[in-house]
Amino acid sequence: MSSDFTFRRGLVWLRNDLRIQDNTALYRAAKGCAQVAAIFIACPQTWRSHDEGDPVVAFRLVCLRELQQSLAERHIPLYFLELQKFAQVPRAMTQIVEKLDVDALFANAEYPLDEQRRDSDVREALKKIDVPVEYCTDRTLLPPGAVRTGSGDAYKVFTPFKRAFIEQCGGTDFAPLPQPRGMAEDQSWPNWIEVQGAHNLVQTIPEQLPGFQPVPEKNGELLGWRPGEKAAAKRLRQFREDIDGYEDERDFPAIDATSRLSPYLNSGAISIRQCVHMALSLNDGRWTGGSDGISCWLSELIWREFYTHLLVAFPRLCMHKPFKEETDKVPWSYDEAKFRRWCDGETGVPIVDAAMRQLNQTGWMHNRLRMVVASFLSKNLLIDWRWGERYFMQHLLDADFAANNGGWQWAASTGTDAAPYFRVFNPYSQSKKFDRHGEFIREFVPELRELDDDKIHCPPPMENYPPPICDVGESRKHAIAVFADLK
C-alpha cells in the first residue's frame, strides 16, 4: 500500500446520496484508500414500514443504475444487496467487509431514528473486527445538533434557528467537493459474494423490488421526471437562470417558477451544498439581502435543514407523535370515505382536487398547494394529519421524512413553529389569489375547463363534478373551537 493512503481497501455504503460529484463519503474514501468499492443495500420490508412508495423507490433504482455507470468509469465497482429489513444489515455488513477484505467503511449520515439505530449497530458490529466506520455530514450543511441556543438547547422556532444558522456558517461558500479519483483498472474485486439469506452481493441493479410496483418509464422519464445526477445538474443550471424571480412567482402553481430540485435532493442525485453554493455565488456570498429571489430560496433550504435538525433533537417526531404533545388529544376524524375523496381529488373543491391529481399523476405537488391540501384535510375535514403525511410519503418522488413530517405538523398546528391553530387556509381565496385565471385547475380538473374564470374556483352544481365535501366556513369554525378547547 502506498504511504499516501491510510487504508488499503475502503468500502462506501451508499444510501440517499446517489451521485459522483460532491459526495463526502465517496470523496473521503477515494482520498484515504488505495482501492475503493461501493455498496447499496435495499431493505424493502423496512422501506414499506416507513411508507416509502413506488415512485420514490423506482426513482432511486434508476439513479442507482446511472451512478453505477459513472463509478465504473473510475473503476469503482458498485455492489447491490437485497435484504428485508434494517435489522439484518449489521451481520450482513460484517460478512461483506470480511469477504471483500475491507479495511474501512465510509457512509454519509442519515438522521431518522431507525436509520440512526441501524448505523450505530453497524459501527458496533464492525468494531468487533477492528474495521473503523466514518459517518460523514452530507445531507445537511451543518451536523444536527451543531446549532444551539445560548442555553445549549435545540431551537424550536425557525426564525431564531435561521439567524443562528447563518451566523454559524460565517463566510463559508460550501464549495462542492471534486469527483473521486479514478482507481487502478485491476483491483481484484470479485463479481459477487455469498451473503446471509437468499440473496447474494452482486453487481446487478434490479428493475424493481418485491412489494413495490414498477413505475412506467417513458422516454427515459418517470412520471415526467428524468432521474439521475446528470438530470439534476441540468435542472440546477436551468433554475440558476430563473432564481431571481423565485420570490415573486413561486406561489403560482401554473408557472414553472420553483426549483423542482426536491426529488434530486431527496435521492441525493444532487447535494445541498451544490444548491447553496450556486445561490451564494450569485448573491455575493450573502444569505440575506441582494436578490430577493435568491435569499428567499436560501431561506427555504434552511427550512429543510431545520426540520432535519429537529428529528435528532426530538426523536418522538419519528414515532408518529406530534411535537406539541397536547394536540394528541384532538378528536381527529377517521372517516375513510372522506379521506379517499381527498386522496383521489374528488372533494368538490377545485384547487384541492387539482393539487391532489397533480400529486397522483406526477409524483410531485407545488409547495403552496401542499399547504392548502394539508390544511384542508387536517382542519376542514379534521382528519388525522398522520393519514395525509403517510399518503404523501407513499406518492411523492421527493418524500423526505423530515420535510414531510415538518410540513404536515406545521399545517395541522401540531408541530414546532406551527401555524397558529386559528390559521386555516381558505381554499377558495387561495385559488383566486394564486390561480386567478384557473389555468392550473383546468390542467388537472378537465371537467371544469369550460367554466369561466369566476366560476371555476367555486363551481355551480354540475353533473360530472361532485359538490363540496364540506362547508369551508363552518368547518373552519369547528376546527378552531376544537383546538381552542385544548388550551
UniProtKB/TrEMBL annotation:
Chain residues that bind FAD: 246, 258-262, 297, 300-307, 398-400
The species this protein was found in: Microbulbifer marinus
Family to which this protein belongs: Belongs to the DNA photolyase class-1 family. Belongs to the DNA photolyase family.
Enzyme's top EC category: lyase
Highest taxon listed in the record's lineage: Bacteria
Site (Electron transfer via tryptophanyl radical): 332, 385, 408
InterPro entries in the record: Crypto/Photolyase_FAD-like_sf (IPR036134), Crypto/Photolyase_N_sf (IPR036155), Cryptochr/Photolyase_FAD-bd (IPR005101), Cryptochrome/DNA_photolyase_1 (IPR002081), DNA_photolyase_1_CS_C (IPR018394), DNA_photolyase_N (IPR006050), Rossmann-like_a/b/a_fold (IPR014729)
Pfam families: DNA_photolyase, FAD_binding_7
Record's cofactor remark: Binds 1 FAD per subunit.
Function: Involved in repair of UV radiation-induced DNA damage. Catalyzes the light-dependent monomerization (300-600 nm) of cyclobutyl pyrimidine dimers (in cis-syn configuration), which are formed between adjacent bases on the same DNA strand upon exposure to ultraviolet radiation.
UniProt record, GO biological process: photoreactive repair; response to light stimulus
Name used for this protein in its record: Deoxyribodipyrimidine photo-lyase
Lineage, top ranks: Bacteria, Pseudomonadati, Pseudomonadota, Gammaproteobacteria, Cellvibrionales
Cofactor(s), names only, from the UniProt record: FAD; (6R)-5,10-methylene-5,6,7,8-tetrahydrofolate
Entry keyword set: Chromophore, FAD, Flavoprotein, Lyase
Spans through the membrane: none
